[in-house]
# Entry
Amino acid sequence: MHRLTFMLSIFLICTSATAAQVKLAVAANFTAPMREIAARFAEATGHQALVSYGSTGKLYAQIRNGAPFHVFLAADRERPRLVYESGLGGEPKTYAIGRLVLWSHDAELIEGSEALGAGEFARIAIANPKTAPYGSGALQILETLGVKDQLKRKLVKGDNIAQTYQFVMTENAQLGFVALSQVTGSSDGSSWVPPQSMYDPLHQDMVLLTQGSTNPAALAFVDFLLGDEAQQIARRYGYGTD
# Structure
């Protein structure tokens, strides 16, 4: 009995000695799958993922200003490329391909793209195109449908896709373009998924930052994120994967 207790103590000491923390900067659209991935990563490796969510533009600005992140999961390819070119991180890799959905809490408001042209709403929410790639994609869809100018005065912009979702969820906006992952599995409201041909593919790249290059938890997380289990979780939330 004493021997078993002793061996268990040795195991716990070794585990705590090898476990580490990884600080992640994650685009807000990836919040739901990231919660599952972080939990499974901890179970599989013993490492802990500390996650900060936000718009890609704001997270990038924080990284440029020396924020102590180890891995950056963006909602586009541009910012990870800039990180790489500025010597702040390694070569970017695609971890997911996002999709947009027009969504309303009203179960009868959206029956297709016609809802945008009909204009039977006071406000439509999108993420800020200056900092959030999902906002840029939403504007492309409005331009493709020829309703951008018509709806200009009805647009309300969230700092990121999470805030945009809250605008619609709380009905401060009657409908809005949110990430498909935010409403996957929900039967609430009404929605329309625009064809991918209406906007540029939302390739989401990640980059191992220089200050994470010697962190065992950061290295393990990159491998885990690109592995089968994490990629399956991402697909469940409506993301495409390479």
Observations:
- The CA atoms of residues 55 and 160 lie 5 Å apart.
- The two ends are 51 Å apart (CA to CA).
- The chain has eleven helices and ten strands.
